[in-house]
Amino acid sequence: MTDLDDIRIARNPPTPSLLGLIFGKRGGRKADWTDYVTYGYLLLGLVIMFAPVLWLVISSFKTPANLQDFPPTLLPVTTETVSVEGFDEPLPLYDVRTEDGETIRLAQIRRVGLNAQMIDPANPGAGRIVVKVANAEPVRKIRFTINNYVNLLTTAGADIWRYVYNSLFITVVATAITLVMNSMAAFALSKYRFRGSTAALTAILATLMIPATVVLVPVYLIVAQLGLVGSLWGVILPTVATPTGVFLLRQYMLTIPDELLEAARMDHASEWRIFWRIVLPLSSPALAVVAIFSILSRWNDFLLPLIVLNNRESFTLQLALASFQTEFEIRYDLLLAMTTLTALPLAFAFIFLQRYITSGIASTGIK
Amino acid sequence: MHPGRVLANVATLPARLVEPVMTGVQKTIGIKRMPWIFLIPNLTAVLLFALLPVFINIFYSVTGSDRLYPTDRPFIGMANYETLLDCRNYLQPSTCSRDLFWRALGNSLVFVPTQVVLMIGISLLTAICLNREIRGRGFFRGVFFFPVMLSPVVVALTWQWILQRNGALNGLLEAVGLSGINWLVHSDTAFAWAVAVTIWAHMGFYTIILLAGLQAIPRDVYEAAKMDSASHWRVFRRITLPLLLPVLLVVFVLCVIRSVQTFDELYVLTGGGPGSATMLMVQYIYEVGFAAQPRNFGLAAAASLLLGLVLLVFTALQLKLSRSARND
C-alpha cells in the first residue's frame, strides 16, 4: 500500500451502516461484535430493571375488574357502557356476531347461563334480544382510571395521610439531625488536635462493624427505657449517628485550609461560628451525598420501625404498605395505588439526583 | 475505609492561638475543650445505640425469661446457646430442639453463596458493559441503579404482583404456550425467586462500585494490549481481572455481609414461606424476639451474637485482604 492510499482512506472513511451508526462506539469507530452483545445485554437489562415497576404503575390505573383478568391486559382497559332509557345503571356494550355474519353493537341487560339478554341502545323500543354469550365480545377501550388513588386517599379506613406524615417526619428530622451531628463530629475530628481524638474516631468507625440486626434486641431495650416505643423519635434517634457520614465529612473537611479558620479567629469569630458559617457551607458537596443516603435509607427503613412502631397511628408508609398486604383480603386495587405512591417520591428524586447518587457511591465506595 | 489510613491524616489546631473571643459555652469551658462540645452529641448516640447494645446483647444471651428489663432477667448461663445448638443430628433440622433456627441457618447457607456469586457475576458483567464507550452510558448507569432506590417493601410487592398465580409472568408464559406455575407457593421456585428478587434490587449498588474500579484502571494498559492484538478474553483475564481484584474483594465481603442480613424483601415477598423455605437468619431473630409470644429476647440475642460472630470473621477478612491488596 502506498502513502497515497493511506491518505485516501483517511479522507474517505468507510460509510458506516445504519446499524453501525446506532450501535457504533463514540468517536465513529467501527462497531465490533462485542458492541452488539453489549447493547443487547444493556437493552435486556433495561427491560428487566424497568418493566416490573412500569407494570406495577400501569396496573395501578386499572379497574378492580380489569385487575382480575387473566391473562392480564397490557394496558388498562374498561368495558364501554351506555345509558339506556328505562335502566338506572349504565349497561355494558357488546359486539355481537349475528347469524348472517354481521356485527352489531348491543347493550347487555343481564346474563342467564349461556345466553344474555341484550337491547339495542339505538332502538330501545324494539325490546330484548337473546344472544348466545359465545357470540358476544365486550367492547373494550383503553382507559386509565385514577379511581384506585381516589379511593385510597379518601376512604376513612386508610389513614394514608398520617403514614405519609410519619414517613416524612422521620426522613426530614432524622436527616437534619444526622447532618448537623455528623458534621459537628467531623469538624472536631478534622480541625482540632486534642487528646482523645483518635479514640473518638476509632469508637465511631468501629460501629461500622456492628450490623444493625445484631444489636436489634438491645436497641429495642434502650428505646423502651427512653420511653420511645411507638414514638417516631424511637426510630429517629438510633439512626442519626452514622459512621460513614462522619468519615465522609471528615475526609472532606480535611481539605479545607486551616488558614481560613485562623483568619476567622483573627476576626474574633467563635468556634461555633467558624463551624456554622465557614466550614459547613464549604462542605456542601459532601453534605449533599450524606443527605441523599440518609433520605434514602430513612424513607425505606423497615426493620427498626417494624419493631419500634407498634401502634397503627405511628406506622410509616412502608409499614402500612406491608401490613396492608398481610391483611385478610388483599385489595389489589388499593395496594397497587399505595405501592406506586410510596415509590413515587424516590422515583422523582432519582430523576433529579441520578448523577450525584451514582458518582457519590462510586467515590465513597461503601454505604 | 481502613482506620489506620484515616488516622495518619490528622489535621492541626494552630499552635499559637489568636486571642479567642470568649462568649457562651466557649467562655465557660475554654477553647481547648471545644472539640468535645462538637463531639458529644455524636458520641452519645454512638455509645447508646451501637457500642452499649453489643454488651447488653451479651448480657441478654446469658439470661432468660420474656421480660425486657435487665433486672427481671435471671442468669441462665449458656442455656440459650445450648438450646440453639441442641440437635440429635445436625444434618436434619427436625431433630433439633429449635428446628426453625437450623432451617433458617440452612437456608442462609444456601442463599448467601448463591446470591453472592450471581450478584457479583451479574454486577461485574454489567459494569464491564457500562464501562465500554457506548451511547447513552449515563442513562444505562441510572437504569441499573434504579431498583436500589426503591424500598424493600415496594420491591417485594412489585414482584409479588408479577409472580402471583394470575400475574404477568404466568400471562407471558401462557402467551407463548407454556403453563404457569404458582411461583411463590412451591418452596423451590419461591427460593429461586427470593435470590433473583434480592439480586434485582441490589445489583446496581455493586455495579456502580465495580464501575468505579474499572474506571480507575489506566487506559494505556488497554492500548498496549490492543497493540499486541490480544483477544477480549485475554485482556479480561490478564488485565481487567487482576487490576480489579482489590475492588472485587471489597465488593465480595460487603456483599456477603449484606446478604447474611437479608430480611425486608423476603419478609414481605414470601413471609419466610412457604413453610420455612425462605426464612433466613435475621427473620428468625425477628420471629423469636419480637413476633412470637412469649418474646424470647435471650434466644434472639444469642442467635444474633452467633450471626455477629460470622460477620466479624468476614469483616476481619476484608481488613486483612484489603491491607494485603494495598501492599501489593
UniProtKB/TrEMBL annotation, chain A:
One of its GO terms (biological process) is transmembrane transport. Its main location: membrane. The chain crosses the membrane at residues 36-58, 168-189, 201-226, 232-253, 274-296, 334-353. It comes from the Bacteria. It is found in: Cell membrane. It is a multi-pass membrane protein. GO terms for cellular component: plasma membrane. Pfam families: BPD_transp_1. CDD domains: TM_PBP2 (cd06261). Keywords: Cell membrane, Membrane, Transmembrane, Transmembrane helix, Transport. Belongs to the binding-protein-dependent transport system permease family. This is L-arabinose transport system permease protein AraQ. The gene is araQ_9.
